[in-house]
């Protein structure tokens, strides 16, 4: 059970896209490969088993050639509305390898035809790791905008 007292990173961004399209961007491996890596990193491979309890895995590569792996399990899937999934970064950076955090992504339609995406990243024990995510997620969202059009 998530509580408001959990250490969390909360980011809100409005996109010119439907909630359904945003949901697909988080769940379709071909769309994920186009945006879900921070900064100059690129997604080399994405796999999703889109069901509650199903796994997802991402393999990304940084400009230095280092390969990063992120994995987790889907806990809630409400098409066009919400995704809750665990998020485990497996290295090579030693900030938080193996630590299971929790992502909740809510999609909220707006009256003007846009959609608000609210990302809440919880269970991040260390302040330096929270700050790293707080800095990295917006660069992913910058890449997401053109994928939606």
* Total of DSSP H or I helical runs spanning 4+ residues: 3
- Estimate the helix proportion, in percent: 10-25%
- Low-confidence segments: 1-5
**Which sequence of SSEs, written as H and E, runs from N to C?**
EHHEEEEEEH
Question: How would a textbook summarize the main sheet?
Answer: 7 strands, antiparallel
**Backbone shape:** globular
Rg calc: 14 Å
- Structure summary, number of beta strands: 7
Rounded average pLDDT: 92
- Based on the structure given, which CATH architecture is correct? 2-Layer Sandwich
Describe this structure as you would to a colleague.
- By secondary structure, this protein is of the alpha+beta class.
- The protein has one domain (9-147): 2-Layer Sandwich (Alpha-D-Glucose-1,6-Bisphosphate, Chain A, domain 4).
- The protein is built from three helices and seven strands.
- The protein has helices at 19-27, 29-32, 127-147; strands at 8-15, 42-48, 55-61, 67-78, 82-89, 100-109, 115-122.
- The protein has a seven-stranded antiparallel sheet with strand order 1-7-6-5-4-3-2.
- The longest helix is centred in the C-terminal third of the chain and has 21 residues, at 127-147.
